[in-house]
From TrEMBL:
Family under the similarity heading: Belongs to the free Met sulfoxide reductase family.
Domain of life: Bacteria
Annotated ranges, domain GAF: 17-164
SUPFAM superfamilies hit by this protein: GAF domain-like
Organism: Tumebacillus lipolyticus
One of the Pfam families matching this protein, by short name: GAF_2
Segment forming the signal sequence: none
PROSITE patterns: UPF0067 (PS01320)
Name of the protein: GAF domain-containing protein
Length: 164
């Protein structure tokens, strides 16, 4: 049985330990649903001041809701719409300090105030996005970007996306 331990330290040390825990959690498992579900749970356990953590998967020319932790969410997001669709279209991480200032923001949970979205890309192909929302403005910064991009890299190393 995998057991999480409390992570302390500065942001860099925090993400180093979080990503180590993700490696151990996913060790020996390559199923994408199982890995995404456990990854969302790990984020929920360790990230403070968030209200949603999960994944949208690229299927049928749109992002479709995948494993997540939080309130019910939008099921389908077109490419280029909202923060998730924009990050997916650009294939780059987006940090939005205040979602109410983001043109075309999709409000799945009115309590969300800031957001970070990290695209999941393998061999230049969009797989989906990691989406994390927070109920406070300016929750995410460049330290979160670096740590969560590494989190997605670990996820990619451990996951067989060919079965998606």
């Amino acid at each position: 049985m995998f057991e999480t331990k409390k992570i302390e330290g500065d942001k860099s040390a925090f993400y180093k330990e979080l990503n180590t825990q993700l490696r151990y959690l996913l060790e020996g498992e390559d199923d994408y649903i199982a890995n995404l579900a456990n990854a969302a749970s790990l984020l929920d356990v360790h990230l403070e001041r968030i209200n949603w953590a999960g994944f949208y998967l690229w299927r049928d020319e749109q992002l479709i809701l995948g494993p997540f932790i939080g309130r019910p969410a939008c099921v389908r997001i077109p490419l280029g719409k909202g923060v998730c669709g924009t990050a997916a279209q650009r294939l780059e991480t987006l940090i939005v300090p205040d979602v109410h200032q983001f043109p075309g923001h999709i409000a799945c949970d009115v309590a969300s105030r800031s957001e970070i979205v990290v695209p999941i890309v393998v061999d230049g192909r969009l797989i989906g996005v990691l989406d994390i929302d927070a109920p406070v403005v300016e929750r995410f910064d460049e330290g979160d970007r670096a740590g969560l991009e590494e989190f997605v890299a670990v996820l990619n190393q451990q996951t067989d996306w060919s079965k998606m």
